[in-house]
């Protein structure tokens, strides 16, 4: 692996990291002011940075083995917008040299949010910026909106900025009120890569967001967070009814999960996947296959797709200590040797 010194010839001034996340429940609710239950994963994005020594930003991705040169004030292409967006929104001046590397798998584990938060943490330290961890999360979300073109909610950035690997982060995405909760007793979280790649900006993500915004408008509410009774959705056009029903019932599942034991939590995860597959239509046949294999395993309480969907990762709640054995058995059945396991 080439380090910062190998690319730029000097040691970096600052190095910062931020984790990816897995969402246990609360999918596609955050941009409607809903409730979510993510946790951080051990994998991180790492960003090293110094003030630049040339007129333009120099941006190196070790994962891609690619170095981009982007004039100050421009966005750039490829992976550049994630970094130039952070530089622009923090208001730092002058060119910067950035080196980035990540072991967060792409596809449902917030690799982009991890990159944004690692960059923002590095810039905060380099420039002594008066920004707290919530400020950084909100800036990361703004990078996605204004520079990447994905109209995401705030869950990914809040989880990358605030969550840890041993607790669930219960987050009210409207008020940003939050608290950490223990995992259900006697359980272990298992994340598997389906092997189906996806890219949010090229998927139906923004389309789904527009659909639930239209449903909210027709119902006369600011966000579907304000609807707690699914019966209130009657009368919506059929497609919008299904989209809204997912959001309303998913919010209810998160709240129910706060006091659920392992078995009931798993049941809620299974119901969440069915809703994402049938009502929100953001799953994929191969993802459904992998989830079904997990749900059928005797040491799995529940399983679902995680992240925005259209491919990517799945998450399962297993009996404590059984996750590696479950992964071996299920991946053998899935027929995708070499798929990545995130412990």
Query: Beta-strand level of the residues, as a percent range?
Result: 15-25%
Q: What is the overall shape?
A: globular
- CATH topology name of the largest domain: Ribosomal Protein S5, domain 2
Count of structural domains? 2
**H/I helix tally:** 10
CATH class of the largest domain: Alpha Beta
Portion of residues in helices?
25-40%
Average pLDDT value? 94
**CATH architecture heading of the largest domain:** 2-Layer Sandwich
What value does the Rg take, in angstroms? 20 Å
Largest sheet: 7 strands, mixed
Instruction: Count the beta strands.
Output: 11
Molecular structure report:
It is an enzyme of class 2 (transferase). Residues 257-330 form the GHMP kinase C-terminal domain. By secondary structure, the chain is of the alpha+beta class. It has 10 helices and 11 strands. The strands form 2 sheets. Strands 1, 2, 3, 4, 5, 6 and 7 form a 7-stranded mixed sheet that branches. Helix 3 (111-127) crosses helix 5. The chain is globular and about 60 Å long. The two termini are 23 Å apart. Mean pLDDT is 94; it is low at 337-343.
Short description:
The protein is of the alpha+beta class and 343 residues long. Helices cover 39% and strands 24% of the residues. It has 2 domains: 4-180, 2-Layer Sandwich (Ribosomal Protein S5, domain 2); 184-342, Alpha-Beta Plaits.
Protein topology:
Blueprint: H1 4-8, E1 14-25, E2 35-51, E3 56-61, E4 66-71, H2 80-90, E5 96-102, H3 111-127, H4 133-148, H5 155-162, E6 167-172, E7 178-182, E8 187-193, H6 205-219, H7 238-257, H8 262-278, H9 285-296, E9 300-305, E10 313-319, H10 323-334, E11 341-342
Parallel strand pairs: 3-5
Antiparallel strand pairs: 1-2, 2-5, 2-6, 3-4, 6-7, 8-10, 8-11, 9-10
Helix pairs in contact: 2-3, 2-4, 3-4, 3-5, 4-5, 6-7, 7-8, 9-10
């Amino acid at each position: 692996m080439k380090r910062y010194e190998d690319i730029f010839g000097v040691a970096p001034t600052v190095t910062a990291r931020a984790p990816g996340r897995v969402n246990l429940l609360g999918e596609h609710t955050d941009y409607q002011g809903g409730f979510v239950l993510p946790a951080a994963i051990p994998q991180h994005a790492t960003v090293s940075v110094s003030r630049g020594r040339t007129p333009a930003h120099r941006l190196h991705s070790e994962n891609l083995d690619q170095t981009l040169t982007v004039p100050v004030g421009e966005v750039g292409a490829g992976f550049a917008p994630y970094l130039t967006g952070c530089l622009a929104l923090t208001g730092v001046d002058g060119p910067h040299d950035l080196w980035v590397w990540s072991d967060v798998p792409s596809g449902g584990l917030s690799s982009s949010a991890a990159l944004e938060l690692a960059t923002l943490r590095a810039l905060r330290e380099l420039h002594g910026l008066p920004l707290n961890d919530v400020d950084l999360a909100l800036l990361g979300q703004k990078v996605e909106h204004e520079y990447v073109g994905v109209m995401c909610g705030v869950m990914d950035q809040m989880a990358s900025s605030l969550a840890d690997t041993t607790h669930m982060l219960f987050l009210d995405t409207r008020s940003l009120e939050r608290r950490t909760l223990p995992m259900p007793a006697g359980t272990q979280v298992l994340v598997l890569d389906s092997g189906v790649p996806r890219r949010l900006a090229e998927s139906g993500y923004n389309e789904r967001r527009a659909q639930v915004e239209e449903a909210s408008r027709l119902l006369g509410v600011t966000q579907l967070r304000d609807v707690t009774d699914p019966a209130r959705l009657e009368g919506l056009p059929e497609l919008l009814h299904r989209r809204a029903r997912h959001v309303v019932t998913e919010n209810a599942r998160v709240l129910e999960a706060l006091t659920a034991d392992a078995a009931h939590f798993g049941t809620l995860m299974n119901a969440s996947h069915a809703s994402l597959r049938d009502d929100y239509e953001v799953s994929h046949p191969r993802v459904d296959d992998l989830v079904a294999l997990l749900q059928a395993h005797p040491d799995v309480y529940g399983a679902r797709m995680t992240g925005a969907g259209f491919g990517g990762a799945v998450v399962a709640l297993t009996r404590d200590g059984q996750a590696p054995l479950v992964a071996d058995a299920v991946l053998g059945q899935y027929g995708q040797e070499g798929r990545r396991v995130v412990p």
